[in-house]
Amino acid sequence: MSTRHPPIPRLWLMTDPRLGERLWDALERLPRGSGVIFRHYQLPLPERRALFARIARVARRRGLLLLRAGAEPMRGEMGTHGRRGRGPTTWPVHSRREAIAAIRAGADALLVSPVFPTRSHPGAPVLGPVRLGLLVRGLDLPVIALGGMTPHTARRLRPMGIHGWAAIDAWAR
What we know:
Radius of gyration: 15 Å
Number of helices: 6
Structural class: alpha/beta
Largest sheet: 8 strands, parallel, barrel
């Protein structure tokens, strides 16, 4: 990662329409220096931009790193998720092959999922700690675990050398 970028946060919130108004509590619950990945793909572009602007105000006030997922640039984005842009770039990864592709594409950090069962993808196969460890072994980028993550599940993954974790529901409780 370039030294001109801020450090990669250890804690992340993935925005999701399921949060509804709980999104605002979740943003307030994040510790200063955490990251937020804005998704909300389903919204028409004007509504998506308005919601992003509102979240960006909270992120600036709270000292959160706000990344934008999706193709359309957003005013106030501090980085991107899943594509190169200005600022730090995180990349979604589900396999070793995707991890290598993300590194070649210029990712600054990898969001590896699903590590544990998650409401976002019910019934989807999960990596679990062992396959997560094998997937990320020897990769020289920060790894953020995603999928069924809580402070408890994150502690279980410390031996795998993860940098941090991301969640939706863990921040909305």
